[in-house]
């Protein structure tokens, strides 16, 4: 497991470094309003990626590693993802075209194309990570980062007096995402044609018995952790959203590290649980919780010591109040990662119904506090609504883990 975690951390570290640098450049280039719109589009993509995780990626990560006959499961989930990406991309393009002015229709297409290729790339990364094959994932991310670096640098040099706008960036992201996964797409094509389609559709019915609860959990988790994005954008405007999201940029690397651990831990913990290695299962979760606590404390201290330089270097007068928001995100990120760690433990046990209830309570607490802040017209404390939701969900999940009774993964036939 350590070797796989190391490879995953290298991969996610690369992604984290690139995303972190890109966001800092955009904050420096763009006004809060444009960065807020960029953040809103990314939030939409994250919501749809979470739905994809619930319906496809998480069942793949939990069921395929624990199955003695995984090929049919792979085939079924591959077809499910193909339909998911096509439906989302086409629906989003049509919807945005009708609800935006004629002059913005190209932007609508660029948003749909960006989100569609992002969903495709995320599925392929998740699928190969679930197989504990991290070299293909690393190659994809290296290719994407290099393509983005060369393209953005080239555009900047050729248009030195004109900054890259949002639509141009979306098309660059779309192109680089698609080019980076061409090799894995060819392998996916071979998987898709390896079994008749008519065998895939009935096969998903058994998977749906568990993924439906994962879908409930994902929906409420998004309300809990990202609902503020849409409320702030609607109530306080894109400038306020841009400031809040700019403050969160510093904690992106920690989220990427958590994602790297999750990609390895989910299939690994599922195997441990299916083989009744409960002591090792519990030990792995505790070690992860301690590690993420230390990571967060070190980052918070580093930001505190470097803050005068960071603020003067990357933020103009439009971001004057950002320091207070950064401090809030430091607290929220710690609780978010502890909640995410315990959530992975429940997913590996196939306890999606109980996990969904935890997120229902968390989302309810987050949206209630966010509603109160919106009525008061106070956007400076919005981030604390996320803290309230994460705290409630974490306490509920800890209670569930302490109550857990050993049980093998069931509910899905291995001969699907």
From TrEMBL:
It is a multi-pass membrane protein. The chain crosses the membrane at residues 12-31, 37-62, 82-100, 136-157, 169-187, 285-306, 318-336, 356-375, 381-398. It is found in: Cell membrane. InterPro entries: Poly_Biosynth_Transport. Keywords: Cell membrane, Membrane, Transmembrane, Transmembrane helix. GO terms for cellular component: plasma membrane. The keyword Hydrolase does not apply. The keyword Iron does not apply. This is Membrane protein involved in the export of O-antigen and teichoic acid. It comes from Ferrimonas aestuarii.
């Amino acid at each position: 497991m350590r070797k796989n975690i190391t490879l995953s951390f290298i991969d996610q570290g690369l992604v984290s470094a690139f995303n972190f640098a890109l966001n800092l450049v955009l904050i420096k280039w763009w006004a809060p309003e444009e960065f807020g719109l960029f953040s809103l589009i990314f939030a939409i993509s994250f919501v749809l990626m979470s739905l994809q995780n619930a319906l496809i990626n998480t069942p793949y990560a939990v069921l395929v590693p624990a199955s003695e006959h995984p090929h049919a499961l792979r085939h079924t989930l591959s077809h499910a993802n193909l339909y998911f990406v096509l439906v989302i991309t086409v629906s989003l393009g049509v919807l945005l075209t009708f609800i935006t002015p004629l002059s913005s229709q190209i932007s609508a297409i660029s948003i749909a194309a960006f989100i569609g290729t992002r969903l495709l790339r995320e599925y392929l990364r998740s699928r190969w990570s679930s197989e504990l094959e991290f070299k293909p994932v690393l190659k994809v991310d290296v290719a994407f980062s290099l393509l983005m670096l060369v393209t953005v640098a080239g555009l900047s040099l050729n248009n030195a007096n004109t900054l890259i706008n949002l639509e141009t960036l979306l098309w660059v992201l779309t192109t680089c995402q698609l080019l980076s996964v061409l090799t894995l797409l060819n392998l996916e094509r071979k998987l898709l044609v390896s079994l008749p389609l008519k065998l895939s559709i009935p096969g998903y019915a058994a998977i749906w018995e568990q993924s439906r609860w994962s879908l409930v959990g994902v929906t409420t988790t998004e309300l809990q952790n990202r609902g503020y994005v849409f409320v702030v954008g609607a109530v306080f405007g894109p400038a306020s959203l841009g400031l809040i999201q700019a403050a969160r940029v510093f904690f992106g690397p920690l989220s990427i590290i958590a994602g790297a651990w999750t990609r390895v831990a989910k299939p690994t913990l599922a195997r441990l649980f299916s083989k009744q290695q409960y002591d090792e299962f519990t030990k792995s979760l505790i070690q992860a919780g301690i590690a993420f606590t230390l990571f967060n404390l070190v980052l918070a201290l580093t930001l505190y010591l470097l803050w005068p330089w960071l603020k003067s270097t990357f933020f103009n007068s439009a971001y004057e109040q950002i320091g207070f928001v950064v401090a809030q995100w430091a607290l929220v990120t710690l609780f978010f990662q502890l909640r995410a760690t315990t959530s992975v433990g429940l997913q590996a046990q196939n306890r999606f119904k109980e996990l969904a209830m935890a997120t229902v309570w968390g989302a309810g607490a987050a949206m209630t506090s966010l509603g109160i802040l919106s009525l008061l017209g106070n956007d400076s404390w919005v981030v604390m609504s996320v803290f309230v939701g994460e705290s409630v969900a974490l306490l509920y999940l800890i209670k569930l883990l302490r109550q857990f009774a050993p049980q093998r993964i069931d509910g899905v036939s291995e001969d699907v």
